[in-house]
Amino acid sequence: MKRRTLLQYMGAAAALSLGPKTVFGETSLASQDAALSGIFFNQLGFQPRRTKLATLAIRAGSADTENTFRVRVDGTGEVAFTGKLGAPTKDDASGDTVRQADFSALKAPGMYRIEVGGALSDRFPVREDAYANALRLTMRAFSGQRCGCSVDLGNGYKHGPCHKDGAYHASSGKSGKAPSSGGWHDAGDYGRYVVNSGITCGTLLWGWEMYPETLRALRLDIPESGKGTPDYLAEVRWNLEWMLSLQDTDGGVFHKQTSDHFCAFIMPEKDTLTSYVIGTGETPYKSTCATADLAAVMAIAARSYKPFDTPFSERCLQAARQAWAWAVAHPDVTFANPPGVSTGDYGDKDCRDELLWASAELWRTTGEPAFEQAFLAELSTRLGAHQPAASVSTDLAIEAPSWGNLRSMACWSYVMAEHRGSADAAVWKQRIREATLASADRLVASSRANGYGNTLLRRDYIWGSNSVAGNQSLLLLVADRISSSNQYAETALNNLHYLVGRNCLGVSWVTQVGTRPYMHPHHRPSAADGIEKPWPGLLSGGPNAGRGDAVADALPTMPPMRMWVDDQRAYSMNEIAINWNAPLVFLLAAANSRNI
Ligand code: 9MR
Ligand code: 9MR
Ligand code: ZN
C-alpha cells in the first residue's frame, strides 16, 4: 500500500507548482496539489533545432480555463516564448484529457520553465548536448552488468569478481567444469542468455554502424580505455567473448549459462551458486535460435572490429560460419528449461527469423552468394507464391524487432548490404524499403494520435514495453536512413521524450537520468549495495498491462500506461535488462548524432 502511495506521489510531484506567489526559479514541491494540472516533457530538455512538445494533463475536477502557455527563463522569469495550448483530447493509453504545448520555435539555449496560469513546471535546458550524459550513462550501465570481473563505476557502484564457478549441466550432454567468464548479467538477475545477448549485441553493433562518429567519441572510462579499440566496441566485446565461450566444438551454441534457480537479492560476488552451461536435455543439446543469433552477431562483429583488431574480426567470422552451418543442419531445435532449472528461458519456438538474420548478416559481411540465396529462399517461402515484382510490400510485415523476432533486422541488413547481389536484389530491396516506410508511417500516425506522443498501441504495453518503444524508434531510425523526410527521426525522438518524462506518471524511466527518475528497479546490485540511489543509466521495463508478478497482480486495472509501479519487487514492470537498454543506447546515439 505504501508503494501505491509512492506511485500516486510521483504523479502528483510532477504536477505544476502553483500560484501567483510562485517565485520564479524556485522549485516548491511543498506546494504540490494533485488536483492541479501536470505538465510532462523530456526531463533532459531539448536540442535547439528539434521539435519541443510538452503534454498538459487536465486533472479531473480542475478548471481548464487557460488557453495560452509561456516558456519563462529560469531565474529571471522573463517570457521567452508564448504559445497557444492545443485543444483538449482524450488519451486512450493513460485515460487522461490532455493538451499539447508546442514551443519548437524556441531555439535559444538556456534554462527554462513552462508556465500555465501562474503554475510552473520543473526547469529544463535547451542545449545542443542535452542528451550527451544520458548516452554515456546508459552505455556505462553495461559495464556495470559485467560478470566475471570486478566492476567500479565510481560513487560506490562496484562489485567484486563474480560467477567464476562454471560447470556443465546434465542437460548439456557434458559434465565437469565449464568455463565461466565474461558476459553481462542479463537483467536484475545474474543469468547470461545467448538469445538475449544476440539482440542486445546486434542492436549495439548496429548503433555502431549507423552512428560511428558519435560512438567513436564516447568515453566510458573502462579498463580497456585508451588501448586502441574505441570504448564502445571494447564494452560490447566483453559480452561477445562470453557468447563465443558457449559455442561447442561442432559449431552449435548452448542456450544459456545460469544457476539452476534465481539467487536471493544479494551482490553478484555473494552469489555462490554454480553457473551451469545449460542445454536442451537431449541430442544435439544446443539450440537453433541461440546458434543462429550468435552467427548473426558474430558476422556483424567481424565487420565492426576489422579496422581495430583483425585477428578478433577473423575469429568472429569463423565462429559465425560454424554456427551458421550447425543451424542450417539443425533448423528447429527449440529450448525450454530442462527439469530442475527455473531461470529465464527465452524460449522462442520459431527460429526461422534468427536464421534469416544470420544469412543476411553473413551476406552483408562476406558477399558470398550462398548466404544471399539462403536469405531470399526463406523470404520467398514466407511469401508463398508471390514473385518479388508481383507482390505488395505490406506482405513483408516489417515490425520493430524483439528478442524473439529478428526478421526486420534481417531485411534491413539485406537492404544495407553493398554487394551487387542476384538479379532480383533491387526489387527485393525496394520492397523492404517500402514495407519499412509503411510501418514507420503507422508509427508516426500513432505518435500523433497519442496524448504523450509515444508510438505505442494499446497492445504494446507488455512486459518490457519501454523496449518496445525503443525498438519502434530503431525502426523509425532505419526509415530515417532510407528516406529524406525528417518526420521519422522526430517521431523516434518522441519515444525518448516519453521514456524520460513525457508520460502520464511524469517519471523518467532511466535511473539517475532526468529530474524525477524512478528509484526502485528490480536489480539485485541496486537492492543489495546499501546505497540509496540505484545504479545509473538503467531503463525500467515500463508499464505492463499483462501483469506477471505478485505486486502487479495486486494492482487495480487501470489504463495501460498507468500499469506500472516503482517497486523493486515488481519484476514484470520494473526490472531492467540488457536488451531494453540497448535500443535506448541506439536512440541516444542517434539523438547525439548530426546524421538524423
Ligand atoms: O529476479 C528474477 C527476474 O530476473 C525474472 O525476470 C523473474 C521472472 O522470471 O523472476 C525473478 O525472480 C523471482 C522468481 O521468479 C520468484 N521468486 C522471487 C524472485 C525474485 O524476486
Ligand atoms: O524480456 C522477457 C519478456 O519478454 C518475457 O515476457 C518475460 C517472461 O518470460 O521474460 C523476460 O525476460 C527475463 C528473463 O527471462 C530473465 N531475466 C530477466 C528478463 C527480463 O525480465
Ligand atoms: Zn557475475
Q: If you had to describe this structure to a student in words, what would you say it looks like?
A:
This protein has 596 residues and is of the alpha+beta class. The protein is built from 17 helices and 15 strands. Mean pLDDT is 92; it is low at 1-36 and 390-394. Bound molecules: ligand 9MR (2 copies) and zinc ion. Zinc ion binds next to loops. Residues 186-187, 189, 191, 344, 346, 463-464, 571, 575, 577 line the site of one ligand 9MR.
Q: Work out the radius of gyration.
A: 24 Å
Q: Level of helix content?
A: 25-40%
Class of secondary structure makeup = alpha+beta
Number of helix segments? 17
Poorly predicted tracts of residues: 1-36, 390-394
Ligands in the model, by name, code or SMILES, are: ligand 9MR, zinc ion
Strand order of the largest sheet: 12-11-15-14-13
**How would you classify the quaternary structure?**
single chain
Quick check: average pLDDT?
92
User: Beta-sheet strand percentage?
Assistant: 5-15%
Tell me the overall shape: globular
End-to-end distance: 45 Å
What can be said about the biggest beta sheet? 5 strands, mixed
* DSSP strand count: 15
Keywords, please?
binds zinc ion, 4-stranded antiparallel sheet, alpha+beta, disordered N terminus, binds ligand 9MR, 596 residues, single chain, globular, 10% strand, 37% helix
